[in-house]
Amino acid sequence: MSANGKKKDLLLGNDAITRGIIEAGVAFASTYPGTPSSEIGNNLEKIGSEYGMFFEFSTNEKVAMEAASAAAMAGVRSFVFMKHVGVNVAADPMLTLAYGGVRGGMVILTADDPSAHSSQNEQDNRMYSKLALLPMLEPSTPAEAKEMIKEAFDISEKLTLPVLFRTTTRVNHARGIVTIGDIRETPKKCNFTRDIKRFVNIPANARTNRIRLLELNKKAAELSETSNLNFIEGIGKTGVITSSVSYTYVKEWMNGVSILKLGFTNPLPEKKIAEFMKDKIKIIVVEELEPFLEDQIFRIAKENNISVKIHGKRSGDLPTAFEYTPDVILSLNNIVKVADKPEKLTKPAIELPPRPPTLCAGCPHRGMFHAVRKAVGRKPVVYSSDIGCYSLGAQPPFMMADLILCMGGGIGAAGGMSEVTDQKVIAFSGDSTFFHGGITPLASALFNGHKFVTVILDNRATAMTGHQPHPGTGRDHGGRKTESLDIENLVRGLGVKQVETVDPYDVQAAVDTMTRAIEYDGLSVVIAKRACPLELKRKKALESKVCEVNQDACRRCSICISSIACPALMKKDGIVSIDKSQCIGCMMCGCVCPASAIKVIK
Predict the structure, then answer these.
(1) What string of DSSP letters covers 164-178?
(2) What pLDDT, on a 0 to 100 scale, did the predictor assign at position 538?
(3) I need a surface site. Which of 28, 119, 350, 456 has the fewest CB within 10 A?
(4) Residue 546: beta bridge partners?
């Protein structure tokens, strides 16, 4: 308990954010799951309805943005969240939403991923705040995230604008002590009042609303100047300007400096920054990724005739790529006094082997990748893959990815590739990915007469981000139960003539199905349908069986390993055996064994 009697808890950053939006009285929340923001959705799926909140897993981030926007236009508080690349999908409605604004508070969380821990890039979404002219806040710790997100809703309602709330992986996935606060009572339903000039952004209204947005941006700058989210601490002639998780490194490792910590980072408090710099002998700007703050600080110094050396990315003192660590701060010891480096930890006596990411034991994608390779044979092919667990098919022995762009990009890129090469093009998409961004490019491929194969790897969940539901699984949440959409019927409904569904555990059947799809002169679709074993384990629906190798029958050919590459298969001194602690008895390895030496046992 805290001094005022309030309960304290040790929370993950995403758990703290969840608590923050509950305390803010959010009525509507939406997302498409994506790391590092996924836990927020998992939490809301379990508890959102307990607090009168409607929560949905939308088919993609654009739909999530549109749904949350409408709720806020009606007048309730709404929250939409996604990983950083999801904002690229949601940017279309977001940039126009800024013109009409909102009535109820609306917060848009972008979870950025410096160092691309679980992403295809490490883009800096602070740039969207400038592009959209939206106010932006950035927390540094889980506790600050919980409190700051409540402030974000208040700012949104003061300005009648959605507020960007930018986190990073180290904030989302850090743990910290959080004080549990009171829950604000807000309306959960309301009547929408028509305002065509504001909310119907045809060109005539958009031009008027553009001027409105610019005026609101000025008001946001005034709020930033007086906001308690921007504060100064410490004394020293060296000034450090920082934000987000970088602040925690600066506070811990730099000595004898004055720190301007920025939490309200768009618009910047320009007067406060200028005043802070006036009496300093040097300024160090510490921020991850792009010089978003630094470039504006150079301009502020110039406009205010402040002649001070500014150290950062432009001076070459700090890197632009990848997330920061204490080591990055310690590298500034020639500019500023930093704490002594801690003694290096003693290496363990046993060198731990590297553990690269890999498809799980019993993953149905293994059987399908082998089937594709077998069906292709020596034909020249191009593999156009996508974002999901199956991206790991790029690794040996499968090598099933020649290009990966974005969600749904596998099918979209396959259309263009098929028109400029005589090679057969095979596109891969996951089931959730197909609903997210694959239906539209498949329709486009039909419309334009493209000829390629699409393999939809349907493992019955949004597996990569934590087994969230999607339209193909149906949903049971908050008293609402929805039926699943059948992918094969949907694909046939689009007009695809050559469509087959196959169980990838039956490897030979999958080979035969792929052979027919490849030989078809047109657009063909194969749906590889088998639930992710991790999802079955979670539901306690996995059969209790394993495989074992009959060593008398085994030919020592190792085809099981080279074809399926399951981590449960082990080879020592030329002898293949099966790790029963990992094996789930799927028998994909047995399907490819030429000696039928692998059998299932209970």
Answers:
(1) EEEEEHHHHT-EEEE
(2) 84
(3) 350
(4) 601
Element of type H or E holding 273: helix 270-277
Residue 341 corresponds to which tokens in the numbers above? Answer: 């480096």
Range of the domain at 322: 231-330
At 24-82, the pLDDT tens digits run: 999 999 999 999 999 999 999 999 999 999 999 999 999 999 999 999 999 999 999 99
3-state helix, strand, coil in the chain (%, to 5): 40, 20, 40
Taking each continuous run of H as one helix and of E as one strand, the counts in the chain are: 22, 26
Distance CA 532, CA 537 (A): 9
Cα-Cα end-to-end distance for the chain: 51
Residue 345 lies in a domain: no
Please identify, among 483, 517, 538, the residue that sits at the C-terminal boundary of a domain. 538
Regarding whether 579 and 552 lie in a shared domain, the answer is: yes
Q: Are residues 144 and 264 in the same domain?
A: no
Q: Are residues 25 and 148 in the same domain?
A: yes
Which domain CATH number covers 274? Answer: 3.40.50.920
Q: Are residues 164 and 117 in the same domain?
A: yes
Listed in order, strand segments (DSSP E) in 113-230 are 136-137, 163-168, 175-179
380 and 493: one domain? Answer: yes
Helix 61-74 × helix 84-100 angle, to 10°: 30
Same domain? For 469 and 582 the reply is: no
Helices (H), 526-587: 533-538, 559-564
Report yes or no: 37 and 29 within 8 Å, Cβ to Cβ: no
HSE (side-chain half, CA atoms, 13 Å) at 344:
4
Q: Please, are residues 232 and 259 in contact by the beta-carbon 8 Å criterion?
A: yes
Check which CATH number belongs to the domain holding 21 and give it: 3.40.50.970
Beta bridge partners of 28: 54, 78
Closest Cα partner for 506 from 597, 390, 586?
586
In a domain, 347, yes or no: no
> Which SS3 state, helix, strand or coil, does residue 428 take?
strand
Please report, as a single letter, which amino acid is at residue 2: S
Handedness of CA 168, 169, 171, 172 (dihedral sign): positive
* Domain presence at residue 349: no
> Which stretches within 434-587 are classed as H helix?
439-448, 487-494, 507-519, 533-538, 559-564
How far apart are the C-alpha atoms of 266 and 422, rounded to whole Å?
50
Q: What is the pLDDT of residue 4?
A: 62
Structure tokens at 462: 């949004």
CATH (domain of 579): 3.30.70.20
Say if 521 falls within a structural domain: yes
Which stretches of the chain drop beneath a pLDDT of 70? 1-5, 341-348
Q: How far apart are CA 413 and CA 405, in angstroms?
A: 8
pTM: 0.90
DSSP secondary structure of 79-135: EEEEEHHHHHHHHHHHHHHHHH--SS-EEEEEEE-TT-SSSS----THHHHHHHT--
Residue 296 sits in the same domain as residue 417: no
Residue 537: the pLDDT is: 86
* CB burial string 157-167: b at 16+ within 10 A, e below: bebbbbbbbbb
Look up residue 115 and give its two tokens. Answer: 């160092």
Question: What is the reported pLDDT for 357?
Answer: 82
**Residue pLDDT, tens place only, 118-133:** 899 999 999 999 999 9
Q: Which two tokens mark 545?
A: 């069986």
Residue where a domain terminates, one of 538, 565, 585? 538
* Residue 309 and residue 268 share a domain: yes
Strand 546-549 and strand 598-601: pairing? antiparallel
Number of domains, the chain: 4
